[in-house]
Amino acid sequence: MSVQHKPILLIDDDQSLAELLSEYLATEDITIEACHDGLSGLQKARNQDYSLILLDVMMPGLTGFEVLQALGGHHHTPIIMLTAKGDEADRVLGLTLGADDYLPKPFNPAELLARIQAIFRRIDIVAQQKAQQPISCNQITLTPATRQVEYAQQSIELTGTEFEMLHLLMQQPDQVISKETLSESVLNRPLAKFDRGIDMHISNIRRKLQQQGKIDCINTVRGVGYIFNSATGDS
Questions:
Q1: Domains of the chain, earliest start first
Q2: Whole-model pTM?
Q3: pLDDT score of 135
Q4: Cα dist. 27→1, 22, 24, 226 in Å?
């Protein structure tokens, strides 16, 4: 799922603003989930996956600054601060604590949308650059720029579909990738009932790896999908 298809979390005690932004951003296919106090917003931010967080400063319970501090440096979701306190000291504090942008109230929703889209573009560029970087895992090296796969310095010839499927699995080692995700991301179609296409492509990848002595790196999770193991044995 791309970042644009994940909802945005709005943490703001102004319910009328939440309704306004929900209606406005819906015209751009952006969904908002709103919390109206800092504590519930912090819990949602920690436990769910959002494309971006809009965070008010002055709220009951935890302030926006306290929410930022509680999230800490391990939280990678972009954050835009929203506040009626637009003085420079507050802007500096918000950015220092980890906010990506700062928008003083009142603001034009069109300006907020422009800032959201700018962050999305930046995330997309970083993701595209990362997607082109070579991946080395479990003695297999996959190079997207040249579409080459090597094991033990031996080239492994894969079809375009097989390459994309292995690439997707290796990007998330030790995590189950569902057949639905593989079908939609690689084959560009929803998984149909009794569709064995994914299974056949995985079988071909395994066979070609085994011919070079690489075994047991792709496991089946019955009824769900496949997992690329970051560490397995070889023949």
A1: 8-126 (3.40.50.2300), 131-228 (1.10.10.10)
A2: 0.62
A3: 92
A4: 20, 9, 6, 37
